[in-house]
Amino acid sequence: MSVVFRGVHIAVATPGRLMDMLDKRIMTLDICRYLVLDEADRMIDMGFEEDVRTIFSYFKVNIVVCQEDRSL
């Protein structure tokens, strides 16, 4: 975890682990420019909407939501 304290350019985590790290202030999203949530629509359908909202609440900047259209 010492690497995370020094700062990273890319972090990959499950939503639960990311929320845990944000809650414990191991990581912040203060200067984060991009957040990619793979299968976010599916997470919401499965009842994890509150988790997605919690993660977004840690952002300090405006959020733009983009969704990929997989039907193409």
Spatial gap, N to C terminus: 40 Å
Number of strands: 0
Number of helices, counting only DSSP H or I runs of 4 residues or more: 4
Structural class: mainly alpha
What is the average per-residue confidence, as pLDDT, rounded to a whole number? Answer: 81
SSE order, as H and E? HHHH
Query: What fraction, in percent, of the residue positions are helical?
Result: 40-55%
Kindly give the count of domains. Answer: 1
- How would you describe the shape? globular
- The Rg value, from CA coordinates, equals 13 Å
| Low-confidence segments | none
User: Beta-strand level of the residues, as a percent range?
Assistant: under 5%
Report on the biggest sheet: none
Could you explain how this protein is built, in words?
The protein is mostly helical and 72 residues long. It has one domain (2-57). 40% of the residues lie in helices and 0% in strands. The protein has helices at 2-6, 15-23, 40-45, 49-57. α2 (15-23) packs parallel to α4 (49-57). It is globular. The model has no long low-confidence stretch (mean pLDDT 81).
